[in-house]
Amino acid sequence: MNIVRRESVDDRHLQDCVADPVIRQILARRGVESESEVNCKLSDMLHYKDMQDIDKASTLLADAIEKHWNILVAGDYDVDGITGTALGVRGLKELGAGTVTYYVPSRYEGGYGVSEEAVDEAINNGVSLILTVDNGVSCKDSIEYAKNKGLKVVITDHHETPEDLPNADAIVDPKQPTCKFPSKNLCGAGVLFYVLIATRAVLRERGFYETHPYPKMARFLDLVAIGTIGDVMVLDANNRRLVKYGFDKIREGNCIIGIKALAASCKVDLRAINSVSIAFDLCPRLNAPGRIRLHKNPAVSLMLTDDPTEASIIARELDMCNKRRGDYERVFVKEANDDAEKQHGNGAIVLYRPNWLVGLGGLIASRIRESFSVPCFVFSGDGDELSGSARSVPGFSLVKNLQTIAERNPELLIRYGGHAMAAGASIMRKNLEEFAKLFNDIAMENLGAGGEEDLVSDGVLPPNYLNIGFAKDLEMYGPWGNGFEEPCFDGEYVVEDVYLVASRHLRFNLRNEDGSILRGIKLRATPEEREITKNMSVRAVYTVGVNHYMGSERLEIKIIAIERN
C-alpha cells in the first residue's frame, strides 16, 4: 500500500479556538480557516441571496401557498431524492401550503426525473405547480410538456447543468455557471431547503404569518443531513454546518418518526449517529427499494409518516428489501469480478451482463473500482438500449469525460449526467464495444494504466492519544466525510496476537516499538491480510473512534489497511 502522509501546515490561526495541537493540525490540514468553521454553527450558514433564480422560485411558491394551489413535489428514487421529497412535502405544509402530493418514479418503469405520464397524472389530480427536487435540469422535454399544459414548474437540482436548460419558471441549481452561490456542494435536499427558507422570507414580508403559525424550517435538517451523507457530497464548511445541526437533532431524538424507526430496525443508537452509521446502516435501507423491482417505494412513506407503529412496519419492510438487495449484489459482484479480471491493466473497466439489475449498477461499479483502482462503468438491460452506472477514482471526472466522449462521437451517448465521481449514461447495445474502447482510451490518457490508490494519513499518533478522551474530541470536531476526511494514522508494529472474528474480520493486537499495544479490528479482511500471523512486522493505517453501545462508550480502533513489512 502506498501511504502518503499529510504535510504539516501553519495552524497558528486556530490557536485561540483549538487547544490540542494534534487536533489543531488535523483541522488546519483540512483547510479550516476560522473559529466559525471549527464550531459549525447554523447561524453562520451561507445566505441564499446569491442563488440564481431563488427570488423567482420563492415568489412563485409563496404565490402558490397563498392561492391554495395544489403542488406536486417530484423527487428521485435515491436517498437524496427520497429525503428531498419528504422535505418538500413536509416543508411546504409547514410553510402553510394546502394540498401537497409527491411523485417518485421507479427506476424500472418511470425512469429518472419527471415524465410526461407523471405530468398528465398531475393535471388529472388538479396540480397547478410542479416543484422538482434532486432532478429537473436534464428533463427538458417533459418540462416543456408540462409548460405547454399550463403548469408552473420550479426546478431545484444540484446536478451538472446542460447548455440547453429546460423552459421552467425558475431553475435553482448552484452548478449553473452563472450562479454566484459560494458553495457548489449542496445535495438536492440542501438546495430545496434553501428555497424553502427563501419562500418563508417572502411570505413573512407579505404578512402571511400574522395569521398563520410561523414555521421553524431548521427542524427538517435531519432530512438534509441524511441526503447530504447519502449522496456523498463534499463536506465543505457550509455542508458541515447543515449536517452537524441535523445530526444534533437526530441525537437529541428531535427527528422525524421514520428516522427513529429506521435506526431501531438496524440497531443504530440515535445518540451516537454519525456519517458512518448514516452511510452504512440507514442509507442502504432507504436506497434498497429503488434498486430492486417494487411497485411502490416504501422509503418515501417512511419519511412522511408520523405514526410510530406504521413507521416500525415500514422500517422492517425496508430491512427485508435491503437483505434482498444484498443477495442480488453478492451474486452480481462475483460475476463482475470474474469479467473485470479479463480487463486487468486497462485504464478503465466497462462491464455488461443482461441479467444485472439496473438499480445495482452503481454498487457493482463501486466494488470493482475499489478492487481495481480504476474508473468502472457497469451496463445492464436486455433490450436494444443499455443503462449504465459509473464510479470513478480521484482525478478522473466522469461527467467531464462523458462530455469528451460526446464531443468525439456525438452519436454514441443517448443521454448522460451526474457528478465527477458518480454518473450514469445510456447507450445502444450495438455501441457497447465502441464505448468501452473510447472510455478506456480517455482513461489511459488521463490516468495511465491505474495502480494502487494512495492511503492519505495524518501520520504517527503518539501512544498517549490512544484513549477514549481523544476519540470523543475527534468526534466532536466532526462531522467527517467526503472532502473532510476522518483522521487516520499509521505506524509500524509487530503482531502480538491476531484472531478471526465472525469468519471474515480480523482482530489485531499490535506492539509498538515503545512496547505500547494498539488493539484494533480489520473488517472484511482480504486473503492477503488473513495470511498475517503472530510476530510478523506490519504497517497499519487506522482510525480512532468511539463505540457507542447500550449507553456505554469505549475506544474503537478500526484498521483501514494492514500489510507485512
Q: State the shape.
A: globular
Number of separate domains: 3
* Rg from alpha-carbon coordinates: 24 Å
In the sheet with the most strands, the strands line up as 3-2-4-5-6
- Distance linking N and C termini: 10 Å
Tell me which CATH architecture of the largest domain applies here: Alpha-Beta Complex
- The tally of beta strands, per DSSP, is 17
As a percent range, the share of helical residues equals 25-40%
Count of individual helical segments: 18
The largest sheet is: 5 strands, parallel
Features:
single chain; 565 residues; alpha/beta; OB fold (Dihydrolipoamide Acetyltransferase, E2P); inorganic pyrophosphatase (n-terminal core); Diaminopimelate Epimerase, Chain A, domain 1; 3 domains; five-stranded parallel β-sheet; five-stranded mixed β-sheet; 18 helices; 17 strands; 40% helix; globular
Structural overview:
- The protein has a five-stranded parallel β-sheet with strand order 3-2-4-5-6, sandwiched between helices. Strands 7-8-9-11-10 form a five-stranded mixed β-sheet, sandwiched between helices.
- The longest helix is centred in the middle third of the chain and has 34 residues, at 308-341.
- By secondary structure, it is of the alpha/beta class.
- The chain folds into three domains: 2-39 and 455-564, OB fold (Dihydrolipoamide Acetyltransferase, E2P) (Beta Barrel); 44-216, inorganic pyrophosphatase (n-terminal core); 342-447, Diaminopimelate Epimerase, Chain A, domain 1 (Roll).
- α4 packs parallel to α7, α7 runs antiparallel to α8 (221-230) and α13 crosses α14.
- It is 40% helix and 20% strand.
- The radius of gyration is 24 Å and the shape is globular.
